[in-house]
Amino acid sequence: MAFPSSNRGQWAGRQQIGYLMQQGVDYPNCLSLAAGLVDYDTFPADLVLQATQKILTDPAQARASLQYGTTPGSLELRRQLLKHLAKLDGVSQESEAGSIDQLLITTGSQQFLDLVSQAVLNPGDICLVTAPSYFVYLSTLEGIGVELVSVDCDDQGIIPASLQETLERLEQAGKLPLVKMLYLVSYFDNPRGITMPLNRRQEVLEILERWSAKQYLYLLEDAAYRELWFEEPPPQSIYSLDQSKERVIYTQTFSKSLSPGLRTGFGLLPKALVKPVTDLKSIHDFGSPHFSQFVVSELLSSGQYEQHVKKLRESYREKSQVMWNAVSDSILTSDLAHAEQPGGGLYVWLKLDDKVCDTRFSQRLFRDAAEKHHVMFVPGELFYSDPSHPDANLTMRLSYGVQTQQKLKEGIERLANAIAEVRK
Amino acid sequence: MAFPSSNRGQWAGRQQIGYLMQQGVDYPNCLSLAAGLVDYDTFPADLVLQATQKILTDPAQARASLQYGTTPGSLELRRQLLKHLAKLDGVSQESEAGSIDQLLITTGSQQFLDLVSQAVLNPGDICLVTAPSYFVYLSTLEGIGVELVSVDCDDQGIIPASLQETLERLEQAGKLPLVKMLYLVSYFDNPRGITMPLNRRQEVLEILERWSAKQYLYLLEDAAYRELWFEEPPPQSIYSLDQSKERVIYTQTFSKSLSPGLRTGFGLLPKALVKPVTDLKSIHDFGSPHFSQFVVSELLSSGQYEQHVKKLRESYREKSQVMWNAVSDSILTSDLAHAEQPGGGLYVWLKLDDKVCDTRFSQRLFRDAAEKHHVMFVPGELFYSDPSHPDANLTMRLSYGVQTQQKLKEGIERLANAIAEVRK
């Protein structure tokens, strides 16, 4: 007899990150510009140590942090997060969020993305995504059996006219009732490092509001990289622009700005989603680790988090500049190579307008780069839900997150050599 | 327009624990014998502090613990867990598990239960459960849209003849192809505190093996309370009896034996389930908090966990005796009241063979106990997937986990008074 297995289990298997991680295993000597990990040298071990000492030597805090929490998470941390978010958005805390009940703490923002998707989308439903888009979330949606429809982007993020056209096209095809959500990374996005300007944020929100008469769409705003800006703070969130507080679902994480090992993220929910998302989280795990929540809470309230993020911005700003200089000097010298200098986040998105330099896993450039030049990038194909998108074969994501400045220079030099050799 | 929402989100809403927790909120002055929380006084704050200091002052460990881990979890902790489990089962590590790849670390054992259920069961499939059974898992199954079919129990756990009859009945109804799994709490179960003896474990396994020719059923063994024995260690796991290692799925947690706030559990998977369950976990959260895993790993390897569990056993043994004495003296004096003294775990399961004493939320006993006598129990109805089960109205679960010895005596006295008053 066959072993029992579910559709969900099979759908979840369509994860391209598995293939990417396997490449890392297959080519262990590669200098990886692929991994989206964060900088080891900036981990706040001393701050986390101070926080744990403070928590565990205070009997009341020690007991509470080691006990079960509630499913939505520590009330104290949730209070601080509302305050923190209002500060980031430059608005008053009262105008920012409906109530603390709408804020849920999760195991990284990934769990929040998964829970929301499960609460909103049935198998066969449609979610709009950008082309390109964060590939792990594309897999998350596929894991629920959701159909992905992509909307084009330019250097300001999603193109409003393309969103409008896509919705019209879906309406004509009779598929509008299946469209439930639009997903956006609104700050220094993954993979392109682009931040949507304020007017673009407003336009997108207005389009969704106009379509509401026919079909209500949620906007899922992923702000994972929001605090990693280099020169100036980015615009306020789409969430803060949503007067109704019934449209935008917002999520952010401490994985990039503090420590992924604490796995603490959070999100804000429209009222209609509070119960189903919290119910699903109860089933998933009854709540994320309470102890980590106390550590994050302590670092936020002491102001040490804010100090840490300042240092982090400086470190990533320098590293991004090192990578950018190297890419400019050795790759962008060709008219066939294009990139935008990132203003924050962890990535440089490179386009090689050159059919010889097909960036896919299966093609010569990726293999030669890994095998001969010992350098690895993430092929652009991973970020497109539609593999026939014209940019899917021409693009790659380069991360300056984990490598040192020296290694970044060396990595880009190796990549430039690999490109030059393929072009010969 | 209606806000979009999924079936999953609605199914997840059928959680009776929400109702139970609401009762706790509605009657805040109650002495709760309901909560399944663990003893605050035995939390190992000093041990966790030592472990975090050791981890965070070692640069290599500090970096690793604060970085992302892999989806299945820390390799070092997984190695130790295999060793730990072989020791509990009294077998060699080689014979115990296929490979370390089959061990997955999760956010408590609840996440493991949820992931396995999602990987094995489609909406409309059937899972066999015991009557009574752990009610949070019943909600988990309902949250996936699964049909529950219950199998009767006696004081040695699930009754083999009843399992056989249930399978025959399902076969006659043409529903056998939908039956995918049997769920059991094999040690000091929730709610009854019963441990299955060895021969019962073998019989159940043999029945499932005989039925394999017609329908392959997994056995999901939940060993959450395994280490909380009082007088002598309980028998080896059903997992260890499964020679094929393709039948039994095993899970255990550190929430009861160490700290729920670390939210660290684990499970062992048959080979066929490793990929789908790990894929689903990647979508859920990419892996449970790495930092907590390092803490648990440090406490296991130093032997401090073992020392701590010894103390914990003694504390719960004493508290269970206090509750048992109080129940014996004030409630079991009636011929219409029955209970078994627990040999481990956190619960006393009380049956009142007396129609006047209907234990349901909606009936007088629960309301009077809460409102007049300020004591709360968990009505037995929560633990039966079939509300028409003859014991569903007659039973209640009493926990000695969280209250002090003094409060336990007081709580049982109040409950005895409430029962006496209803009987008047």
CATH class of the largest domain in chain A: Alpha Beta
> What value does the Rg of chain A take, in angstroms?
22 Å
CATH architect. name of the largest domain in chain A: 3-Layer(aba) Sandwich
Q: Show the largest interface.
A: A-B, 90 and 90 residues
Organism (chains A, B): Rubinisphaera italica
Cofactor (chains A, B): pyridoxal 5'-phosphate
GO molecular function (chains A, B): 2-aminoadipate transaminase activity; pyridoxal phosphate binding
GO biological process, one term (chains A, B): alpha-amino acid metabolic process
Describe this structure in words.
Chains A, B: InterPro entries: Aminotransferase_I/II_large (IPR004839), Class-I_PLP-dep_aminotransf (IPR050859), PyrdxlP-dep_Trfase (IPR015424), PyrdxlP-dep_Trfase_major (IPR015421), PyrdxlP-dep_Trfase_small (IPR015422). Chains A, B: Residues 29-415 form the Aminotransferase class I/classII large domain. Chains A, B: One of its GO terms (molecular function) is 2-aminoadipate transaminase activity. The structure is a homodimer of 424-residue chains. By secondary structure, chain A is of the alpha/beta class. Chain A has 2 domains: 7-43 and 307-419, Aspartate Aminotransferase, domain 1 (Alpha-Beta Complex); 68-302, Aspartate Aminotransferase, domain 2. Chain A has helices at residues 7-11, 16-26, 45-56, 59-66, 75-89, 93-96, 108-120, 135-143, 160-172, 198-211, 238-241, 271-285, 290-301, 304-330, 364-371, 405-423; strands at residues 31-32, 103-107, 126-131, 147-154, 157-158, 179-185, 218-222, 248-253, 264-268, 337-338, 347-352, 375-376, 378-379, 395-399. In chain A, the strands form 3 sheets. Chain A has an 8-stranded mixed sheet with strand order 2-9-8-7-6-3-4-5, with helices on both faces. The N and C termini of chain A lie far apart (55 Å). At the A-B interface, helix 1, helix 3, helix 4, helix 7 and helix 8 of A face helix 1, helix 3, helix 4, helix 7 and helix 8 of B.
